[in-house]
Design brief:
Elements (H helix, E strand, L loop, with lengths): L1 H26 L7 H17 L4 H24 L5 H19 L5 E3 L18 H23 L3 H11 L1 H6 L4 H27 L1 E3 L6 H16 L6 H21 L7 H15 L2 H11 L21
Antiparallel strand pairs: 1-2
Helix pairs in contact: 1-5, 1-8, 1-9, 1-10, 2-3, 2-4, 2-8, 3-4, 3-8, 5-10, 6-8, 9-10, 9-11, 10-11
Length: 313
Amino acid sequence: MNFWLDVLIQGLLYSVLALGVALTFKVLQRPDLSVEGSFPLGAVISAMALTSGLPVPIALIMAALGGWCAGQLTAWLQTKLKIQPLLSGILTMSALYTLNLMIAGNRSNLPLFQTFTLFTLPSWMSVSLTRWYHLSLLLMIVFSLKLLLDWFLQTKKGMILQVAGDNPKLVSALGENLSAYQALGYSLSNAIIALCGALVVMMTRFYDLSMGFGILVAALASVVLGDSLLSSTGAKLTTMAIFGSLLYRFTIASALALRLHPSSLRLITALILVLALVIKPSYGKTILTSLKGGDNHVSASRHSKNISLKHPK
């Protein structure tokens, strides 16, 4: 029973990360390497806020705002300085590495073992119920976030954001500012990713500067895996991201249960991603498009049939 509870907890915890990555990878149709900087950015901001005595909600909001600013930086490098999307993410990630170190007071790690966090067990609750308490909190957080994203993607701004990834020229033809919608996508994505970093540091009660290393590959594996298996069912983007995260964490937990060495986990992650790309090769084209600079879509989007300037906000 504990095995399955741990899988659910880890899967739901990192499904927030998968939701954020899905916005750039699936909606804007380009991978964003700044993820490996914005994830620990949210973690260190929340860690410093909590150790300074600020309430948990304020710490989470500050973390999300930090991620939002990171997304704005990536978008600015692309839209204003005309730097390629992949390189923009790398530059933001590199800048955030130093910024994260500065925020932590030039310390590479911060313990929060004696600090009250979102996942601190109430005094009246038995320690044996810790896993169930964490699971219930994560269920509320993840599905609230899912419902908000589902609602947003059905608004006028959300639908134009989807078109901005499928057919950028159509956005300009509709009289909308393409750069503004790309910035919105990156900012919203990185805000959610930073929020996940804050949740992870509150769960583990420890911040480390290197906690974002390799996190993008794991998130992409979750997104691609979920979409490869559920796309034919008509499931929503958010549902596929959450399902993919749960399945990915189950695979990792199973590998550890089989007593594989922890150093093998990155190899397993790479194999999962390769398998998902083999099942659905179209994702490889998305990455190649990003390497070439992105906005070369020539076909009309499936969303263009549904969007109108008169669509209600």
